[in-house]
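Before the break, one more example. Copy the sequence into your notebook; we will annotate it together after we see the structure.
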Amino acid sequence: MFLPTRSDNARPFLTWQRITDWAQEHYRSRTFNKDERIPTRQGLLYLVERGAVRLVGASQLGDMVTPEPDQPPSDEEASGQLGLGNPEEAFLGFVGAGQPFEIVAHSPFNLQSFAHVDQTTVIWLYWQDLDTWPHFRREVLDAFRYQHQRKLLWLSTLGQRRTIDRLLGFITLLIEEYGEPCEVGYYLPWTLTHAQIGSAIGSTRVTVTRLMGKLRQRKLIYIYKDGLIAIPAQPGSAADQ
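Here is what the structure looks like once it is written out:
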């Protein structure tokens, strides 16, 4: 299991300090409170200077979907998973400190970003601004390539038939990328509600709560401090040393 150190997560760009200074001088930096929506538009590049950004998506077809007149609603429709008349946000992942992201408009989906923790600071640039720092542009593209590889792993996890396998894989991927060491292994430094987890793996809050209990009984996950999710370290990992 690959678990990056905190310094790898927080400072991936060699010219990071120059970029943050430039952003402050050109009023391209803003700090957000927890759960505050981050205004974005297509064509801009965003960098998370501090904190964490939560990406969510919602289908614009939610109000248009109606069951067949002679057919009872499916289990997903009855439980509200399809968002009939009230499309729900689907959790799409985090963007941690030092990482880039962009929002691409693609109908019928609506993508949005929110500050997941207080004092989340975001910088925005035009892609042509990177012409001033060609090495930094390569760093950004490398970061996007890495994110793409992680998304492929995410899709592989979501393709598992059993919900409990999707749940454990989802938690493991998040902690592999953003985890910090603790007494039991590694933990995700941000909270996630069971409803948010359910939206990410195609399940419900009730099912996630039940399966989280099973994973805790099997000691495949732990609850660390104030409700933070942790997984045990593998033998020989940094957390064991």
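Residues 1-12, 63-87, 235-241 have pLDDT under 50 and may be disordered. The chain has two domains: 1-158, 161-241. Try to locate both features in your own notes.
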